[in-house]
Specification:
single chain, 14 helices, about 280 residues, globular, mainly alpha, about 0% strand
Length: about 280
């Protein structure tokens, strides 16, 4: 029975990675007209409403875990969205995917889990790959540095989920997380853009419903049965999905150095996850 639940959990995390990977192009297009904070705030607002309706009002035991999850996820969202202003969807997807080698390290120090030597090796080569991806342009480098901060935020979010998910109602935990993220956006909002966002209602609804609500629900469900290290490795598929979408549907182009960087990052990911 537990084995079947693990299979379902793996499938849930892979589907979540696909949904996460599909967001890069949508967000990058929205940034032509809306600020990063406006996009993130609207995603959180939609998700907050849906999680409140589905799970009800949470008790006080959800406040601390929900706050920590919301804080680190907000850091990830804001820096990733800001980074997309100056880097390509391919670069953003690949660099964001580096959280798969950061997560086990954070999990070791925060949750006291065991970390293997190959995680350290994967992290070293992952950073080398990120440098090769970013080296061709100062603007791209700036964007990728933002996205690297994002990868750290996402890794810490996964570790917080591992720490607090057991025995918790997913919707109630996610309501606090989404509410915290939305509140953190308020001081940086451009209020006039809230009314203007109605012109982009469909991509915003996609991000709010299918990603911030569905994908994160799938993540928390999967992490009930899969540890943080394994979950982060499965989420490495997010970068692969973003890469494929960027190349085949938007016709983005990388130079040889960038492709070598992509290869090094993906190789470090493979090295970490292979048995």
């Amino acid at each position: 029975m537990f084995k079947n639940k693990k299979v379902i959990a793996v499938n849930a995390l892979v589907l979540a990675a696909l949904l996460f990977g599909s967001t890069f192009i949508i967000v990058k297009n929205l940034l032509d007209d809306l600020s990063p904070t406006t996009v993130v705030f609207l995603r959180y607002l939609i998700a907050s409403i849906l999680f409140l309706v589905s799970g009800g009002i949470p008790t006080k035991e959800y406040l601390k875990p929900g706050f920590l999850m919301g804080l680190f996820l907000w850091i990830g969202y804001i820096t990733q969205t800001q980074g997309l202003l100056t880097t390509s969807t391919i670069n953003s997807g690949i660099v964001t995917g580096f959280y798969i080698v950061l997560t086990p390290i954070f999990s070791k120090f925060i949750n006291k889990t065991k970390i293997e030597r190959k995680n350290y090796i994967g992290s070293t080569f992952g950073f080398l790959g990120i440098f090769l991806i970013a080296i061709n342009s100062i603007d791209q480098l700036f964007g990728n540095l933002f996205t690297l901060i994002c990868a750290s935020g996402y890794a810490l979010h996964i570790v917080m989920v591992e720490r607090y998910i057991q025995g918790k109602n997913i919707s109630q935990l996610m309501f606090i997380q989404s509410l915290v993220g939305g509140i953190l956006c308020i001081p940086f909002l451009k209020i006039n853009q809230i009314s203007e966002s109605i012109d982009f209602i469909y991509p915003i609804l996609f991000l709010g419903i299918l990603v911030n609500f569905c994908a994160f629900y799938l993540q928390l469900f999967g992490q009930k049965f899969i540890n943080a290290s394994t979950a982060s490795l499965l989420f490495g598929l997010e970068g692969v999905f973003a890469l494929l979408i960027g190349v085949f549907y938007v016709e983005e182009v990388l130079n040889l150095t960038n492709w070598i960087g992509v290869f090094v990052v993906l190789s470090s990911i493979y090295y970490v996850i292979k048995e």
